[in-house]
Design goal:
Elements (H helix, E strand, L loop, with lengths): L13 H18 L5 H7 L4 H23 L9
Helix pairs in contact: 1-3
Length: 79
């Protein structure tokens, strides 16, 4: 996982971004009752805190993706 707050995940395209978000969306929703991942994403443009949260959750998603790839599990394309 990335440790420097200036390093963050930069998905190469929308498909990769959607895939990475799908890896953490349910966990975010469970950790934040009454709020959804999309609620947080809507606040990203004007909230420094939510930008940081989004960055951190994408870092978790990238780590999960790497773990899945290392296990040899097939990646499922995002819709």
């Amino acid at each position: 996982m990335l440790s420097n707050s200036h390093d963050f995940v930069r998905p190469k395209d929308d498909a990769e971004r959607i895939y990475l978000e799908s890896l953490v969306r349910e966990d975010y929703d469970q950790c934040h009752p009454g709020e959804t991942f999309d609620d947080m994403k809507r606040r990203v443009p004007f909230s420094k805190e939510d930008r940081g949260l989004y960055r951190d959750w994408l870092a978790v998603a990238e780590a999960r993706d790497a773990a899945l790839s290392a296990e040899g599990l097939p990646l499922i394309a995002a819709e």
